[in-house]
Amino acid sequence: MSPAARTDPVLTDRLLLTPIGVQHVDELAILHQEPLVDHWTGPWTPALVRTWVNGMAERWAVDGVGKWIAHDRSTGVLVGRGGLSRMVIGDEAVLEVGWAVRDTSTGNGYATEIGRAALAWAATFSPEVPVVAFTEVHNAASVAVMRRLGLRRSGVIHREGLVAGRPGLHARAPFVLYRQDVAGPGRA
């Protein structure tokens, strides 16, 4: 399942994961109009989708890592997006694993499948970089995916996001941080 090169598509049991590029703008606009995706990632205008896609294509080119668009292998239907992003948390450089799945595809294990592919990719191409995941503390579905991936809770960070019971975005929303053990699943 591991690609031969960093930017090769990745095949899982059910998904084709392709590095996001400018050709995916329309599909990502559809994904980010889904009510559940919109709830957790915020409203995405067409301009914001284009800007994000251009940035992701640049991340693949510059960082050698990024997010994939996920299609069903047998039908070609859009399932979602996910993968890895390089970032710094505190003073530590990490790979953050994340996902967003279409509303009609939630509850079918696709987020976990995308996450497992990302962990395997990280183990192959960046085994020296710690892998983390985070979400708003009240996002039970994403926390469940993190646990299924074998990540362990390692604290709380604050960043812009949602706060349970309060409308809108908040500058210092609490996010639960999960981390892969250095010798965790898929890591040497």
From TrEMBL:
One of its GO terms (molecular function) is acyltransferase activity, transferring groups other than amino-acyl groups. It holds the Pfam family Acetyltransf_3. Keywords: Transferase. The keyword Transferase applies. Signal peptide: none annotated. Residues 14-152 form the N-acetyltransferase domain. This is Protein N-acetyltransferase, RimJ/RimL family.
